[in-house]
Automatic annotation (TrEMBL):
Residues 106-215 form the Cell wall hydrolase SleB domain. Keywords: Hydrolase, Signal. Residues 1-26 form the signal peptide. The keyword Cell division does not apply. Coiled coil: none annotated. One of its GO terms (molecular function) is hydrolase activity. InterPro entries: Cell_wall_hydrolase_SleB, SleB_dom1. The keyword Transmembrane does not apply. This is Spore germination cell wall hydrolase CwlJ-like protein.
Amino acid sequence: MKLGFGRILPAVSLALVVLSGQAASAQDVLASRLGALLGQERQALAVIPDVRLAALTTLPPAAQRNVRTAARSVDYNNAYLTSLPTASGGPQWKCLSEALYFEARGETAQGLFAVAEVIMNRVDSSDYPNSLCGVINQGTGRKYACQFTYTCDGRPEVISEPASWRRVGKVARLLIDGADRTLTDGATHYHTTAVNPSWARVFPRTASYGVHRFYRQPTRTASN
């Protein structure tokens, strides 16, 4: 049987209306079910005290979640360090913390940060190992070759000052997490006022903090 064009259009229109009605009906059913489910959740949440609900839905500070923060400026004073939570970390953090403890724990806050900058700057330089532990332990075990005296002075590394350890650990954490390095102008060397190494007469001095003097390694002597 053949259907004329005039008969096809009404049939198609009727089919579309039926399908549209079925889709709308399905949507109404879904909306009704979701409404009922959300209504039950609202009733359940209503019995939870506001204080408890806030505690469940608020994230702790990033420092307490051990989340690394973006690079930022810091205050170079003891009050700022005291205000920070106790720091922790893995092997690289421990290496830097130990270096700061044995090399500069008695320094001012600026001096402590400056020593940390030197170590971080060496990690970034192609002239030195590319890790904190590698830089700090470079030459250890070879007479007159160690880069940091405490690693080859023959004395055991014993942490006997807990307060100083917490202080240096915070500095190490800040530098590893990307704190700005603005104190030493790219220095890669330092020494205390108790010594006068020969390279200090060649390298340009960039800063002085406490009993430490800081120097940047000249490009022309980078291979030395």
